[in-house]
Every structure is written in structure tokens, then in C-alpha cells.
Amino acid sequence: MNKKYYIWGIIALIFVVLVASILALFKAEEGWLGFWGGIIGSAIGVLGAFLVLKEQVNSDRDALKEQLNEEREQNRKQQIDNTFFNLLSMHNEQINSLKEEKKFEKIYKELRSKLINKMHKSCYSYLRNHKDIIPELNNLKLIYEEYINKHERKISGAYMPAYESYWKREHRKITFTWLNDPFLDCIADAVDAILLIEDIIDTIKDVEKTDSGIIDKFKYLENYGKAFEIERTEMWNTLYNRILEYQTNNFTLIDEDLRKAAVEDVLSRHYNEVGAYFRLFHRIIKYINDNLERPEELPIKNNYLGFLRATLNSKEMLVIFYNAAYTNRGAGLLKELQKTTFFGIEEDLKSSQHFNISDLFWEEDDLNKMLNQHEDNTVLSE
Questions:
Q1: Domain locations in the chain?
Q2: How far is the C-alpha of 200 from the C-alpha of 30, rounded, in Å?
Q3: DSSP codes, 187-253
Q4: Per residue of the chain (382 residues), what is the pLDDT tens digit?
Q5: CA nearest neighbour of 124 among 260, 234, 215
Q6: Measured between alpha carbons, how far is 137 from 128 in angstroms, rounded to an integer?
Q7: From the centroid of its chain, how far is CA 350?
Q8: Cα-trace Rg, the chain
């Protein structure tokens, strides 16, 4: 019984003692004592029966309430389960259709191709933002000019008029034919190097101009330097090595804005085919997050994520990620994904459990986005 029943019992006991004391005080006759004793005893019996019955009713009510709560919770879980698998069935229909067309593999290849193009733009950004490049090129140009001025008088007299016409007056590449003149051979190469430097400087200065072969031109310039045994400065070596990186697949050299522009551009061209799928996928992840928020439900949540992930191959997972992480349309999905372990926990990612991390375009940055867990989200291995 709860506390209030004990209070009523104490009140009844005090009442009995009080009545008995009054009867004793006034020396009531034995008949009166029996009369009052019967009444009090009956009252106490009725009160006791009432309290016991009330306690039983309360106990039955609590048991019924608990049973209803359990049934309600069971129904909730059943409804969540049914809804999830219905959504998963819809998901499978859409993804299977896209699989037949190898749509995600095509998108991934286009993304890589687009990023290679962005590497050239990033190279131009680097060249135009680095103030030391043009002075360094001008210093190199001066070395070749000094070489020409020093050795041009050694050119055979038969070729001097043509040389002066091509270079001195018209400032253009020496293209006439000559034989057995080593000095003219070297001077022609020096002229080529100067013209190449001027072309590179013009390209850097003209913000509207682009040249997909700019990196190769720096390579040619480096080869001229080796041929003429020009001592390269530390500044040149640093700049040259950095420029060479833009001809690799080191996409980390691409800044965040160009990354997003590349992904947006590629995915926008395919959005008519994959837009509905992305929206459904977003809805599934949000449904899981909204309906399985309790800590004790985390194993179920991870199981659902595992079922969903099992329907996707690595390229499909990566395209989903890049849509979420690098497009405006996908920002909401990224927030939902970061509440989950859909891409795996840190150990899964390091061991390439669900996809090869070498296929990520920006490995460190992308992994950080995938592992951006909420502080209150306990991570369990699936």
C-alpha cells in the first residue's frame, strides 16, 4: 500500500483509542461499550476492505496501463519495421533500374574527368595568385637574352642577315634552314626559350586566357634550363615542383569552391535520371533518424542502415556521398547521414570495409565529413 493508506490506518487507530478513552473516562456501561465496539469494529472492517480493494484496483490499473504501453510500443516498432521495408522495396526498384544503365559508374567517371579539368584551372589560380612567378620568369628570360647577346656575333656570316630579320627585327622563332653552325643551334634554342617565357607570362597576366598545355610549357622550360646548364634558384624549384603536382590526380590542390562547382556541374546533367532516387534515399535516412532516436534502439538503427547499404556497390555509395557533401541540393541529406554510421565507423573506413578509400577524391576531407558524428550518437559496429 502507498503512504496515504498508512495515514488512514493511523487516523482510524487514533479514533478508536480516543473513543475508548472517552467511554472509560465517563465509565460507560458494558452495553454501551459493546454497542460502540461493534460499530467501530464494523467501520474498521469496512475501511480495511475498502483499502484492500482500492489497492487491488490500482494494481490492476497499473498492470493494464503497462500492458497497453507494451502493446503500443510493439505496434510502433512493427509500424516502423513495415514502413522501412516498404521504403527499402521502393529503393531497390529504383536502384536496380539505375544499375542496369550503370548510371552511378558513369557519373563517377565524369566526376573524375571534370576534376582533371579543374586541376588546370587550379593551376592557373596558383600561377595568378603567386606574385613571385613572373619576376622569376623574367629573371630566367634575362639569362637567355644575355646568352644571345654574348654569342650572336659568332653566327656564320651567311646566316646573320636571316637571323637579324627573324629575331632582331621581327622577334619571332628562327625557322630558316642552316647547316653546321653550333652557335646558331644554341641561339635558336635560347630564342625558343625566351618566346616560351613570354607566352607563359602573357597567359598568366590575361585572366580570360587559358591553356591546357601550360604545365607542359613549364616542362619544356625546365629542359631548356638543363640544356643551357642554368642554375635554378630555390624559388624556381619550389614553383616548378608545385606546378607539376597539377598534372597528377592530387585533387586536394583544388579548392572547395571549384570542388563544389565540378560536382554540381556533373550531377546537374544527370539529375533528371537520379534526382528521384536521391530524394527517396534522403527520405529513408531521415525516417530512420526520426523514428529510432533512443539509445536502446541503436542496434536496430544500425541494422536498418546495414540493410540499405547492402543494396549499394562502392561507386553508388560514393556518388551518394558527393551529392550530399558537395551540392546545395544534398546539404539536407548530409546532415542526416552525419547522424548515422551509414558509411561505417572509423575502423571500417580505414580497412575499406564498404568501399575503397583510395576512390575518394579528397580522402582526408571526405573521411572527416563522413565521420562528423553527433556527440550524443553512440557508434556501434554493424
A1: 3-77, 104-123+255-382, 131-243
A2: 129
A3: HHHHHHHHHHHHHHHHHHH-TT---TTHHHHHHHHHHHHHHTTPPPPHHHHHHHHHHHHTTTT-GGG
A4: 556 656 666 666 676 666 656 655 555 555 555 655 566 666 666 666 776 776 777 776 777 677 777 778 788 889 999 999 999 999 999 999 999 999 999 999 999 999 998 998 888 888 988 878 999 999 999 999 999 999 999 999 999 999 999 999 999 999 888 888 899 999 999 999 999 999 999 989 887 777 778 899 999 999 999 999 999 899 999 999 999 999 888 999 999 999 999 999 999 999 999 999 999 999 999 999 999 988 999 999 999 999 999 999 999 999 999 999 999 999 999 999 999 999 988 888 888 888 999 999 999 999 999 988 444 444 433 4
A5: 215
A6: 13
A7: 16
A8: 43
Closest alpha carbon to 382 in 357, 348, 336: 348
User: How far, CA to CA in Å, does 338 sit from each of 85, 319, 375?
Assistant: 22, 16, 11
d(CA 61, CA 364): 58
d(CA 232, CA 240): 10
In sequence order, which residues have a C-beta less than 8 Å from that of residue 370 and are 6 or more positions away? 321, 337, 338, 343, 344, 349
CA dihedral 107, 112, 116, 119 (to 10 degrees): 100
Single-letter residue type at 247: Q
